[in-house]
Amino acid sequence: MDTPTPDAKATAASTNPHVLWRQVLGLVLWVGLLSLPSGGPFGAVLLLTLGGVTFADAWKSGIYKQPGKRSFLNISPMAWGIAMALLLIVAYPAYLLNRNKLRTKESTDVFYWATVLLGAIVIGLLVLKLTWRAGSAVGAS
Fold first, then answer.
1. Confidence class of residue 117 from pLDDT cuts 50, 70 and 90?
2. I want to staple 58 with a disulfide (CB 3.0 to 4.6 A). Which of 65, 77, 122, 138 is the partner?
3. For every residue of the chain, which 3-state class applies, written as one string?
4. Which residues of 30-39 are buried (b: 16+ CB within 10 A; e: fewer)?
């Protein structure tokens, strides 16, 4: 009698080779150190928080790098967190638009909505900062 074999997607999702504490430590080191010069301490904390929430959402949703598949979107949860913090303009829309396609597990959407909210706050603050700089440059001339 033949026994059914699990499909490759379910197998890849159940065998996660990563250790959570190492992933979080790597995220903090990469994002915290690299984003500090760009936005000051407040900007670094905000971007680190956004990266951490995105990492947690990707981890809980089972968005892992699949071996043998080559794609811009085929990256690990830690890479999503780093990309979200350092390449917000590219990573934020890419993650939000493709998250449901990349998911391999059903989980709560708490981290997803936190990612949406924090990303919107960061983008809003960035727009305000650019508008203020443009206004002060016009007023100075």
1. very high
2. 77
3. CCCCCCCHHHHHHHCCCCCHHHHHHHHHHHHHHHHHHHHHHHHHHHHHHHHHHHHHHHHHHCCCCCCCCCCCCCCCHHHHHHHHHHCHHHHHHHHHHHHHHHCCCCCCCHHHHHHHHHHHHHHHHHHHHHHHHHHHHHHHC
4. bbeeebeeeb
The pTM of this model reads 0.68
- Return d(Cα 13, Cα 105) in angstroms, integer: 7
Interacting residues of 118 by C-beta distance below 8 A, sequence separation 6+:
46, 49, 50, 53
